[in-house]
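Here is the promised in-class demo. Please do not try to memorize the tokens; focus on the logic of going from shape to residues.
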């Protein structure tokens, strides 16, 4: 993996979804309760280690989670989505091209000196803004499985995605099957 793996909207979007999905729900508790969990999230999404995370990074990451979750929650109202994303971009993003050493030119999206949380806010807001501009607010979704509140991005070919993962899809299928059996015994 190259030194520029932090940079690119596809990865920023996956990280935004993963960050929002750490919020406590009926499915699980808070998955971003400590710095170690933030560090694991970053490493799981291709951040080359070592990654050092402190309490400021964690506090900013939790603020970024709230802000990005609000964007997903507002998905039925495109003016509200735009207002929230524009505000988040204005507060956190300062896109600029950079090349250093052997690394080719790439886009840094956060302001210099940002914490990991500041970077998550800026890159997440930029990714969602690009996706909404390309696909419309319908790209923003929430898992439809009972009790799951994970964020979902409806991108890629095929029918619109309804579930965050295979576990939620199969759990829902089984529940629907059981409901059908109950409704028509015999
Ligand atoms: Zn789910």
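The designed amino acids, position by position:
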């Amino acid at each position: 993996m190259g030194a520029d793996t932090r940079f690119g909207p596809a990865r920023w979007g996956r990280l935004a979804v993963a960050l929002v999905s750490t919020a406590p729900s009926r499915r699980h508790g808070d998955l971003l309760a400590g710095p170690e969990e933030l560090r694991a999230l970053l490493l799981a999404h291709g951040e080359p280690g070592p990654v050092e995370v402190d309490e400021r990074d964690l506090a900013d990451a939790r603020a970024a989670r709230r802000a990005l979750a609000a964007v997903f929650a507002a998905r039925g109202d495109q003016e509200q989505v735009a207002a929230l994303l524009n505000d988040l971009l204005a507060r956190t993003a300062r896109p600029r091209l950079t090349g250093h050493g052997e690394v080719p030119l790439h886009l840094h999206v956060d302001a210099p000196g940002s914490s990991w949380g500041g970077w998550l806010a800026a890159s997440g807001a930029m990714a969602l803004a690009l996706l909404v501009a390309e696909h419309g607010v319908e790209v923003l979704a929430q898992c439809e499985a009972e009790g799951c509140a994970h964020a979902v991005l409806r991108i890629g070919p095929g029918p619109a995605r309804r579930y965050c993962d295979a576990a939620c899809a199969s759990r829902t299928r089984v529940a629907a099957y059981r409901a059908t059996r109950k409704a028509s015994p015999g």
